[in-house]
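Structure ticket #2291
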Amino acid sequence: MNLSVTMEKLADEIDGKFLEYSTENTIITVPVSRHRYQNVTGYLLNRNNTKVVEFMSRVCELNDDIDHKAMLELNQELFYSKVVIHEGYLKVAAAALLDHCTEDLIKDMVLEVARVADDLEHHLVGADVN
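Resolution: structure written out below.
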């Protein structure tokens, strides 16, 4: 599977925008409502000698107002994604083995990451910051 081709096709399908940094790093801007958008970065990674595709979207900088317990509890409600702390930010991420991915699975993962990240961003920050 070619991540760039799949992400570009998805961007066209959802009326989003696509940007390719490399064959292993892409960004799709997902429209989540009439006036809100969420950037989701796709990565091709090697973990334990296995190709993995990961999608990640930034929510906000970490701060003392974030209820970490609520974030962990939210993970239980999600299908593909999870709330994570990465590089000083609260983010939403999803990952799967590349060999197991289909275009439909990638679409579902990207859309869930975008929706959850946007909902959290709206709730925690009150603005579209991406």
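Closing remark: Strands lie at 17-22, 25-33, 36-47, 50-61, 81-86, 89-97.
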